[in-house]
Write a structure and sequence with these properties.
Blueprint (H helix, E strand, L loop, with lengths): L16 H11 L4 E3 L6 E10 L2 E11 H6 L15 E5 L7 E7 L6 H13 L6 E5 L3
């Protein structure tokens, strides 16, 4: 899924759903993985429905261990670092809708990424802000 050896065109980072979807289609990808899977944090971009329209999700997907071990882009200034599993949705921007998903996993591999994407796409009551839930 990750072709870091080649530079990506602007379409790969666009918040325009049609442009980004076309890029995914051209490259044969279901989502864009920026970096490598298998660690405790990944950056992944994919499409889905939010607020009754198609959007590009610009997602930081992190484990709870990663979250507690260091400050990440998912933690707001002044926030405590000890948090339950959660989904944070920010304001849409030029690169899409910022999303941070924190789950109780040892590492984030490709199957975990696929399951997270399905979870976000199937969650019908998503709204901006933080959604916390108990780790299982």
């Amino acid at each position: 899924m990750d072709d870091t050896a080649q530079p990506r065109p602007a379409a790969a980072f666009s918040g325009d759903v049609a442009l980004f979807s076309h890029y995914l289609s051209q490259t044969g990808q279901a989502f864009l993985l920026l970096g490598e899977a298998g660690g405790q944090a990944v950056h992944v971009r994919f499409t889905g429905c939010f607020e009754d329209r198609q959007v590009v999700w610009d997602c930081r997907f992190v484990t709870l261990a990663y979250q507690s071990g260091q400050r990440s882009e998912c933690v707001e200034a002044g926030a405590t670092e000890s948090r339950p599993c959660s989904i944070d949705i920010g304001q849409p921007g030029d690169s899409g809708v910022p999303l941070c998903v924190r789950l109780n996993l040892h590492r984030i591999d490709i199957p975990a990424i696929r399951k997270m994407i399905i979870m976000i796409r199937n969650y019908k009551r998503l709204r901006r802000g933080r959604h916390e839930f108990a780790a299982q």
